[in-house]
């Protein structure tokens, strides 16, 4: 159960987020297997811990109950993980795009928002709910645990810097926790990409918790340096084609690398494979203002995005 109390509030304050399950420890040996023993940092914490209140509205609680009833009635637990992710994403089609829901609190809180999503909270929400379905535990407390596990470093909510603000950090951490892994190098056309990550430390005035400097800002700087020094892979958008689609599954996490100064990724969503084998992009769209499945093939979607240079692909373990 979550360690903090649930605070039910009438209206959720909308405040700023930077881009976005069940953490079983898997035994393995290779970079492309489901094995994590050699990758897990020593003393890595797998059990999620929530320090502080959980922020949720009555409307969000009601949406959770509708989701739980639908998943149980239609027996989603019997489906492959990729199909559960797909159905969960479809459940949120039409949900309004709402930015900045995680920022602005005086102290870090686990924000549960199912009625307004940005690109990363859409992916986090979908993964957390999927894991609840897989574990046959569709209680609100179980969902809070899974959301905390995905959103925070080591699955532990311990202040502002414990949240995985950068997507490259998020990708690395969910691999350690046995949730999903970067499969980009398994797809034709992949290349190394250099990322210089320093946006937050160069713009601390844009983040409530960083304006005053101090330990949070120093921790963010250290994380940024680590991410800048790390190795990153992507598939240039010019190389995304029908052969790429053959390697993708519904539910794969599509992370769009950006050339924006100081940032690693500019957007994230989910692969949605249709009956003809074409892959589309399911995401919370800022420009259209809601969660949707783009009608264009994935490669065509990317062509119109000036600052997207390519994509990194992440897949849940066991798929």
How many structural domains are formed by the residues?
2
- Name the overall outline: globular
Q: Given this structure, which CATH class of the largest domain is correct?
A: Mainly Alpha
Largest sheet: 8 strands, antiparallel
CATH architecture of the largest domain: Orthogonal Bundle
Our Rg estimate from Cα atoms comes to 18 Å
Q: Helix amount, in percent?
A: 25-40%
Extended strand count? 13
Order of helices and strands: EEEHHEHHEHEEHHEHEEEEHE
User: CATH fold name of the largest domain, please?
Assistant: Putative xylanase fold
Whole-number average pLDDT? Answer: 86
Strand residue percentage: 15-25%
Which superfamily, in CATH terms, is the homologous superfamily of the largest domain? Putative xylanase like domain
In whole angstroms, the N-to-C terminal distance is 28 Å
Provide an overview of this structure.
A hairpin with a 5-residue loop joins strand 10 (265-273) and strand 11. The strands form 3 sheets. Strands 6, 7, 8, 9, 10, 11, 12 and 13 form an 8-stranded antiparallel beta sheet that branches. Helix 2 packs across helix 3 and helix 3 (119-134) packs across helix 4. The protein has helices spanning 58-73, 81-91, 119-134, 140-151, 167-176, 199-202, 215-229, 242-247, 298-303, and strands at 6-9, 49-50, 54-57, 110-111, 156-157, 180-182, 191-192, 233-236, 253-258, 265-273, 279-285, 290-293, 308-316. It has 2 domains: 6-180, Putative xylanase fold; 182-316, putative xylanase like fold, CATH 2.30.260.10. By secondary structure, the protein is of the alpha+beta class. The protein is globular, with a radius of gyration of 18 Å. It is built from 9 helices and 13 strands. The model is unreliable at 1-45 (pLDDT under 50).
């Amino acid at each position: 159960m979550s360690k903090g109390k649930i605070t039910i509030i009438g209206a959720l304050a909308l405040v700023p987020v930077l881009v976005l399950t069940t953490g079983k420890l898997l035994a393995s040996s290779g970079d492309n297997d489901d094995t994590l023993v050699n990758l897990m940092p020593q003393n890595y914490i797998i059990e999620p811990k929530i320090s502080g209140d959980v922020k949720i509205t009555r409307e969000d609680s009601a949406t959770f109950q509708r989701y739980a009833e639908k998943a149980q009635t239609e027996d989603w637990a019997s489906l492959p993980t990729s199909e559960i992710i797909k159905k969960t994403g479809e459940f949120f089609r039409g949900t309004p795009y709402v930015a900045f829901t995680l920022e602005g609190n005086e102290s870090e809180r686990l924000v549960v928002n199912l009625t307004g999503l940005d690109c990363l909270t859409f992916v986090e929400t979908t993964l957390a709910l999927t894991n609840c379905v897989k574990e046959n535990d569709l209680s609100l407390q179980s969902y809070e645990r899974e959301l905390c596990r995905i959103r925070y470093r080591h699955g532990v909510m311990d202040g502002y810097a414990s949240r995985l603000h950068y997507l490259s950090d998020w990708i690395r951490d969910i691999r350690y926790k046995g949730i999903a892994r970067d499969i980009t190098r398994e797809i034709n056309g992949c290349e190394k990409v250099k990322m210089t990550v320093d946006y937050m430390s160069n713009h601390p005035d844009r983040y409530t918790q960083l304006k005053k400097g101090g330990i949070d800002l120093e921790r963010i700087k250290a994380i940024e340096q680590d991410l800048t020094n790390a190795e990153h892979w992507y598939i240039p958008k010019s190389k995304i084609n029908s052969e790429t689609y053959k390697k993708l599954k519904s539910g794969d996490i599509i992370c769009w690398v950006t050339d924006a100064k100081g940032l690693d990724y500019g957007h994230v969503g989910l692969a949605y494979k249709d009956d003809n084998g074409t892959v589309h992009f399911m995401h919370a769209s800022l420009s259209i203002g809601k969660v949707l499945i783009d009608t264009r093939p994935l490669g065509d979607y990317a062509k119109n995005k000036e600052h997207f240079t390519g994509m990194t692909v992440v897949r849940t373990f066991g798929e």
